[in-house]
Design brief:
- The protein has helices spanning about 35-40, 45-65, 80-95, 105-120, 135-140, 150-160, 200-210, 230-250, 270, 280-290, 295-320, 350-360, 365-380, 385-395, 400-410, 425-435, 455-465, 465-470, 475-485, 490-505; strands spanning about 5, 25-30, 40-45, 65-70, 95-100, 125, 165, 170, 215.
- With about 500 residues, it is of the alpha/beta class.
- The protein folds into three domains: about 5-125, HUPs (Rossmann fold), CATH 3.40.50; about 135-200 and about 230-320, Serine Threonine Protein Phosphatase 5, Tetratricopeptide repeat (Alpha Horseshoe), CATH 1.25.40.80; about 340-505, DNA Cyclobutane Dipyrimidine Photolyase, subunit A, domain 3 (Orthogonal Bundle).
- Helix 14 (about 385-395) crosses helix 15 (about 400-410) and helix 17 packs across helix 20.
- The chain binds flavin-adenine dinucleotide (FAD).
- The site of flavin-adenine dinucleotide has 27 residues, from helix 9, helix 11, helix 13 and helix 15.
- One of its GO terms (molecular function) is lyase activity.
Length: about 500
């Protein structure tokens, strides 16, 4: 009897050992399901790109001689949930064993573990052969510590995997070049050309819509701009290394109305669906530095995101789930303003960042963290709602990476496990790092009055409200000293302004 092997939509790695040699005794199954389209409201491009990439993967497996059973979203026999579909497939093929790769989402991990336990045929979970670390490696490294410093983890990873290392010392004499990576972008050098392929998937989009799947954002179905297989992802990686990586470090934290991706790689979709392995991406960046093609600060800054942050947040996720999804240390409970779904707000930074997210299913890190997340935290939005928004809107949003970034790093809802202080700012930072404030309806300098930038009053009010929790944080000494120096009536005016802003978030 054949073995049934399940391939999830974010497990599109053709180099997995499962595919080393075709076998008649193995049937690979890929299933498009409502269970996956409906657990949160997704951006149209995300659903389309994942299904299109799954179809491409199935096609390539078949060409390589593998047996594949593909269940499309509109297939009449599709039961739309994982257990029901697997039950039917096991019976249809008379399968004698069931195997799956380790899922990255808690939701699927629990569902499949439960399913496997109930099966009467042998079931086995294998490694997905993608990450540097195991699920529990970060937790083991941080054992007994109250705070999980990313930098500590990152250095351990550099040593363990011998990346940018001379003996046991960091090349260039420094672990971290973060301080060199904080330049605004003056408009030159020009933003590199968009390195992504384009595909017409109008027909598939019609199928998805006809099946009744709900979504939001621009589908760009006739011109879908994401890599859909490994070859395309590799071509995009090549283009990034030559065109954008040299300046990645410089402008990593920049924001601009004149460029929506700046010098970022746009590789998160290819990485998170496992078309690319983090090791090869890191190796390419390191090799480019060794060959003298990119500065060390650029290579290190980029590598830190992948070998550091990406593996680290995964460790946080597995250590803290399932409670992490409910974390709300600051007790925030406001619903998202309606303009999160339209981009229609007078705050230019948010109109640009939300607007481009709806258009491209993408925002770069600083837009996610210091514009949208910053506002959400200052305004006191419900972190679980914020989490569902992030999980839906971005092309690369899979819960294992999205949740710690949103709930931990961006909303401080875990009380500071991941971030040493809340990532918030007033208008001054936004103005320093980009051009969003130019031509904005609001006045970046004013703290009160109807034209004052909402970030200002909300910022001071946030620290005022959170004094008990944050007042002793040594990284916030400056902020609290400034607050202490404020006259009583200045502070009162800020409080009143902030309270009024929070009452009318929808109309800001
Ligand atoms: P680049 O800037 O080119 O970085 C290269 C790679 O490094 C990325 O592709 C990504 O794999 C990795 N990386 C960078 N920063 C992080 C980080 N903080 N955590 C994990 N990996 C990182 N990333 C996701 O992949 N999925 C998400 O759902 C997601 N949600 C986020 C939500 C919030 C609130 C914040 C603040 C960040 C989130 N990130 C998420 C992290 C980061 O913003 C994206 O990985 C990045 O913007 C993807 O674009 P890029 O490929 O052009 O990245």
């Amino acid at each position: 009897a054949p073995t049934l092997r399940l391939i999830l939509g974010d497990q599109l790695n053709p180099l997995h050992s499962w595919f080393a040699a075709p076998s008649d005794d193995v049937i690979h199954v890929l299933i498009e399901m409502r269970q996956e389209t409906d657990y949160v409201l997704h951006h149209a491009q995300k659903i389309l790109a994942i299904f299109a990439a799954m179809r491409a993967f199935a096609g390539q497996l078949r060409e390589a001689g593998h047996r594949v059973h593909y269940v499309a979203i509109d297939n009449p026999s599709n039961r739309q949930t994982l257990p029901a579909n697997l039950d039917a497939l096991i019976v249809a093929h008379g399968a004698g064993a069931f195997e799956y790769q380790q899922p990255d989402e808690w939701r699927l991990d629990a569902q499949l573990a439960d399913y496997a336990r109930g099966l009467s045929i042998p079931a086995r979970m294998v490694d997905s052969e993608h990450f540097y670390t195991t699920r529990s490696e970060a937790a083991e490294l941080f054992e007994g510590r109250k705070q999980w410093l990313m930098e500590h983890f990152y250095r351990a990873m550099r040593r363990r995997h011998q990346v940018l290392l001379e003996g046991d010392k960091p090349v260039g004499g420094q672990w971290n070049f973060d301080h060199d990576n904080r330049k605004p972008w003056p408009g030159t050098p020009a933003e590199p050309r968009d390195p992504r392929p384009r595909h017409d998937h109008s027909a598939l989009w019609q199928t998805i819509e006809a099946a009744g799947v709900a979504s939001f954002g621009n589908p760009q179905a006739g011109n879908l701009p994401w890599p859909l297989d490994r070859a395309e992802a590799l071509a995009q990686l090549d283009a990034f290394i030559t065109d954008a990586l040299p300046r990645f470090g410089d402008f990593q934290d920049a924001m601009s109305t004149r460029g929506w991706r700046l010098f970022h790689s746009l590789l998160s979709f290819a990485l998170n669906t496992k078309m690319l392995s983090p090791r090869e991406v890191v190796a390419r960046a390191e090799a480019a530095w060794q060959a003298g093609q990119v500065p060390l600060a650029a290579a290190e800054g980029f590598i830190r995101q992948i070998l550091g942050w990406r593996e680290y947040v995964r460790g946080v996720y597995w250590a803290r789930m399932p409670a992490y999804a409910e974390a709300n240390a600051l007790g925030h409970d406001r619903p998202l303003p309606a303009w999160f779904w339209t981009g229609k707000t007078k705050m230019r930074c948010l109109a640009e960042s939300v607007g481009q997210s709806l258009e491209h299913a993408y925002a770069h890190h600083i837009q996610r963290l210091m514009v949208i997340g910053n506002f959400a935290l200052l305004a006191g939005l419900d972190p679980a709602e914020v989490h569902r928004w992030y999980l839906g809107i971005y092309i690369d949003a899979f819960e294992w990476v999205e949740l710690p970034n949103t709930v931990g790093m961006s909303q401080f809802a875990d009380g500071g496990l991941l971030a040493t202080k809340p990532y918030v700012s007033s208008a001054a930072y936004l103005d320093r790092m980009g051009d969003y404030c130019k031509g904005c309806h609001y006045d970046k300098k004013a703290r009160s009055g109807s034209h004052a930038c909402p970030f200002n009053a909300l910022y001071w009010d946030f620290f005022d409200r959170q004094r008990e929790r944050l007042g002793n944080n040594h990284r916030l000494g400056m902020v609290y000293r400034q607050l202490d120096k404020m006259e009583g009536n200045t502070l009162d005016a800020l409080r009143t302004q902030a309270a009024s802003l929070r009452e009318r978030l929808d109309s800001l």
